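Homework-ish question, so no full write-ups if that breaks the rules, but can someone show me the predicted structure for this set?
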Amino acid sequence: MSNSNHVRYLDQVSSRPLVRHLVYSGSVIFFFGIILIPPILGIVLKWNTIGQIFQSSELMSRASSAIYASFAIALLVSLLDLVAGLPLAWFVARGKSKWLNIIDTLADLPFIIPTVTLGYSLWLYWSEPGGVSQFFGGNPFVSKGWLLIALLHFAFSYPAVVRVIVGALLDYKVVYEEAARTLGAAPLTADRTVTLPILKSSLIAAFTLAFARSLSETGATVMVAGAFENGVVFIKNTRDAGQEGPMVFVSFVLILTASLIYLGIRLLGPRFKMPVKRVWPFVERKLSDFKVRTVRDSFTTLVFFAFVLVPSLFIVFPIVSALSNGTLNQAVVGVGVWQGYWQSLLLSYFVATMVTALNILMSLPMAVLIARNRWGATASTTLDVLTNIPMIVPSIALGASMSIFWRNFAFIPEIALIIFAHLSITYPYFVRAMVAAIERVTNDLEEASRTLGARPFTVFRTIILPLTKYSLFAGTIMMFARSVDETGATLAVVTRLKTVPVLLVDWVKGTTTPLASPMDIALGAGVLVLFSFIILLVLRLVVRGRY
Amino acid sequence: MVNVSKRFGKKIVAVDNVSLQVYDKEYFALLGPSGCGKTTLLRIIAGLVELDEGEVYIDNKLVNKLPPEDRSIGFVFQTYALFPHMDVWDNVTYGPRVKALEEKKSEGIGREMLEMVRLYERQDAFPHELSGGMMQRVALSRALAAGAKLLLLDEPLGALDAKIRFELRYDLRRLVKDLGLTAIHVTHDQGEAMAISDRIAVMKKGKILQVGTPQELYTNPQHIFVANFIGENNFLEGNIVKTSDEKIQIELRGGLIVSGSDTSRKEGERVVLAVRPETFTIEKGHKKRTNSLFGVVERLRYEGTNIRYEVRLENEDVVVVVRPSLVEEWFNAGDRVTVSFPSEKSYVFTYPSRGLREELAVE
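A: Not a homework solution, just the prediction itself:
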């Protein structure tokens, strides 16, 4: 059959209710069968091993401290990200200088650098003699441990917070602020009592995003943790030590608690009222002064540079050294530690491609199901909440429990396990992006198309897809990048195969033979960034060109 | 306002060297088509937009450098801009609160304003629970509660349906007059402006074409655009063929001769003669009258109070004639008629250099 015949055939079959039902059911079965239920069943299957942790007070103490540390760091970092990110987002969204475009772009950089690279860069910046430490006698300014983890999580969640708030500010109707000003409110009073409350849902979304990212981050956290253990480090350590019970226990607690916190935020967040009745006109007028604002904006930018941008890009220095001291030659030829690097790189991009393609195919019907309430509002809301859970749950916990489940099926190769793990992690990103995009396409456009004779599949490809193409494109990029970057779940499922982030973690921890030098690590991380950038650029050009 | 100008980018001149004075306690309208700069001018007065040139004085004080919160103005937005997260009470008392008035005083003002607009019982409602007319009244009472003496209204009735708009326009004026305020009301609806304003400024493409009372603008338009925008007019192209101290003779298309009263014109000048539809008289048959034109009724429309005729003249120009329906005989389509008008009730304008259609266009 030719392409147009294929399309015609699909158009025709899409009219049949049974076919539509099968498509939607298929996507729901995929979600439950591959994404949601395996991790739950994995925990259930190994529930009897949890007793191990209760038999050892030392293990129990370690586990409790690790869990507590995960949530404490996530909470601290999310609040700090909000406090530091909000002024920068305001500055970027409302400022008038042309330099702000540059700052806006730079604020995204940590977002696109793979976290394992970010982790190494931050470690060089804060701990190694070549970084900040050189101003303090060469001793590590910040040693490996909880503070370095917090600095890392702050840096890599910061762009997410800024992006969400900038988007909200740009969408926000300035007329409300103008109204407040014409009623006599100083700019700060107007911002605090009018703008921020209206943007509340975006602030909650930004906080939740930062919280989830901090909770979930594994690869770079393992690199900089040292002897300190938070939840994800504990899971990795116990997995490496073959201690299944503690691993399952902590995974279970992290998954459950994270899910409950997410539900809590979703239910209680909208009810949270910001204090708007009290005003301090004199003080707020003074704080609205141009000089005060300039100082605030300068300080905000300084924090961004000192704690986010420079640490994220610090790896450039060793990369430059590596280019000229022979490391590059070794890399190209594949000598020493570089023997496995290129295979790992290929594996990473193969997995990312498979995951992206599968997710698009299986999650688009789910997105339509949720956005259009095809099975009713209750089912939509339930599915909407459930599809977000993999995003809030620590990826290593998800990976560990998935691995327990899938290993019961010996015929499933390890590469499939990696793909399943990556599918779980990346699935919510695409679904969320597409649900939001489809909801913005008003129903009457679809209805108009149907009254003109278009069948459901035609409506989908001629109305919905073209009108959501940028979200499709953005969702695809996010999924691909997230899969390439994914470390935690991959660490949990692999035994032989190594994706590049996993390999880099091993290089940093010195568990490879031969050992990787700092130049090797820097160059390896740099190559990952470069390849990711090129592929994303190509993807962007290809997708944009088609549309 | 003195020589106020505002540009957006290099090409768009939103306000072009506007000078205007609004008197104390006056209800003043800025009237013009969409995009003429009236809202920009209002926002410049409010301090929401920075002007590029000129000066703005409020109560004889130069306010160019003052931010909106320090100009003591009340602003009613076209979309009302009621704070969605606050109920009616909090919206209305916002102004007194941010100015740190005593709580009791704020409450007193809030109550007074809400009672004035008959919404005190709805003080706990949120904006999304109110109808359009109610939102407009809350927006108005919020602006008034802030205590300003200058009220700026940006198409305050624009978002309402026709009937409510008609009713509320008079409430608006009454409220402003009762409180002794000065109001500047932006609108594109000439009926609205004429009904409630003491004076009106007609704007086009960033410039003020004419300022006057509604009667002055209607009976003595100084610009052809004003003649078209305020009320309705028939426009007939012609040339001045004879002038004298008392009258001028205009030759219309097809050689039809009529007289006009603008004796400042010169022979040979290309002009446009404007005659309002209600100024024409219409009789059956061929009658010799002053300024009589012969033609055939092409179409008529019954409008209740009036009948509206479209008459095709001998030179193929079409004029609209409006006559009271109850007191006069009716004509039918196809009837041969004579239409005539007094020259003193017509207007003569120089033919626009950009063409008549372009000059009369509202966009």
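Now go work out the reasoning yourself. Hint: Chain B has a mean pLDDT of 92.
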